[in-house]
Amino acid sequence: MTDKLDESGRRLIHRRTVECQGFLRADGLWDIEGRLSDSKTHPVTLAEGRAVETGQTYHGMWIRLTLNDDFIVQDVQVTMPDVPTSQCRGAMPGYQKLIGERIGPGFSRRIKELFGGIGGCVHLTELLLPIATTAFQTIPMARSLVAPRTPADVDAYRNARGALLNTCHALREDSPIAVFLKD
């Protein structure tokens, strides 16, 4: 194994960029945003005949989830400034179904139930997964920015860490790291 991938003998054809950010709002809620963009290194013509030039974004979409400290969705904002077809934006209103949902165990299954198949946009739905992990990277550790830590904050942080147990190889129950997730 190396720390670098071999990049010889290849040519970039497609670029997908996914960026997620977590923000603390003035009202104490959290905005977790995800942005996805797709572009090509060559011109293409899309299904409805729209020409896309080299480097031009043809999937450009954002989702913002406003969460409370318990990871419950308070508000959803979706925008799709760059889409390949005129039909794509029709999926946007459906994401309001996320209001009241909790990001936690079972969230990925729930978003598939709500938005799988024709119930949503595959790109927006896939973007919800890194948004969820961004929420877990943002909220528990940043609570001390809002107010001094309380026993409830410590419990919430432990619960968030405990939710990570057995979610990957490094965080498996018999891993040396597991002790940090359990205490």
Automatic annotation (TrEMBL):
Domain of life the protein comes from: Bacteria
Family annotation (InterPro entries): DUF2889
Pfam name, any one: DUF2889
Protein name: Dihydroxy-acid dehydratase
Species per Swiss-Prot/TrEMBL record: Pseudomonas brassicacearum
Organism phylogeny: Bacteria, Pseudomonadati, Pseudomonadota, Gammaproteobacteria, Pseudomonadales
